[in-house]
Specification:
rod-shaped, 9 helices, 252 residues
Length: 252
């Protein structure tokens, strides 16, 4: 092809047809420019296609991370020792304490205590996208805002739950370290009869130890319900973000 064009140029010059040669040269330059522009356009198309493929993979990975968070949160909420069952047990213990404990209540009452959990949510995909700059190349400003809002919520709730756990444990230590914990230790070490014998205050609603337990159970139950609200909020937010990602994936 190059030899063909070169031959044309040579013939035009040898025949002194300068005007025709000039038109030919302009046409050849135009063809070269068109070729360069087409090559650039093809390169841009390939780059955009690769960007879109990368975004799809990252969004699917992010969707999987959200599902892991949902699974974790649902387990914290509805598991064998999840927040829902803990609240049910605490509600039951509150009723027993308000009426006054008796020996038949001991087996149920002794198993009621505040157990703390950290949320331990997954954020590695989000951190990867943020650190590599891929987060800001997703193309959708709305999607970017939703993702950042969700992970800020996760960070905030992790912090508050940790603060609540620390506060409740401190209160437990101050209120009932020498009361309820001793009862539990006695119960599992020596059995119910010796526990009742060594801790007669269990059936004295006017004793300081009994009042401390009643106050602490109410306190712990209140904050367990608070944590459950936060867990439900995170589940809802995770599912909402999944729906937004699904819509974004359907566009591709």
């Amino acid at each position: 092809m190059i030899k063909f064009f070169r031959k044309i140029r040579k013939n035009l010059l040898s025949e002194n047809k300068f005007s025709k040669y000039l038109l030919y040269a302009i046409g050849e330059i135009a063809l070269v420019m068109i070729g360069i522009l087409l090559a650039l356009q093809v390169s841009n198309w390939n780059t955009q296609r690769q960007e879109k493929q990368t975004n799809v993979l990252l969004l699917k990975k992010l969707d999987s991370e959200l599902q892991l968070n949902i699974n974790r949160l649902v387990d914290l909420k509805d598991g064998d020792n999840g927040y829902v069952r803990r609240i049910q047990r605490s509600d039951s213990l509150q009723i027993m304490l308000s009426k006054g404990l008796n020996e038949n209540d001991m087996d149920r009452a002794i198993k009621n205590y505040f157990v703390s959990n950290t949320l331990n949510l997954y954020t590695s995909t989000y951190e990867e996208m943020k650190n590599t700059g891929r987060l800001y190349k997703l193309g959708s400003e709305k999607l970017l805002n939703e993702i950042e809002t969700y992970y800020r919520l996760c960070e905030r709730e992790e912090f508050y739950v940790l603060q609540i756990n620390n506060e409740v444990h401190l209160q437990i230590k101050n209120d009932i370290n020498n009361g309820w914990y001793k009862v539990q230790q006695d119960y599992y070490t020596f059995g119910k009869e010796l526990t009742i014998k060594d801790n007669p205050w269990l059936f004295d609603r006017q004793s300081q130890e009994y009042k401390n337990i009643s106050r602490q159970v109410n306190y712990a139950n209140f904050y367990t319900k608070n944590i459950l609200k936060r867990v439900n909020r995170l589940i809802d937010s995770s599912e909402k973000l999944q729906e937004i990602i699904k819509i974004e994936l359907n566009k591709n």
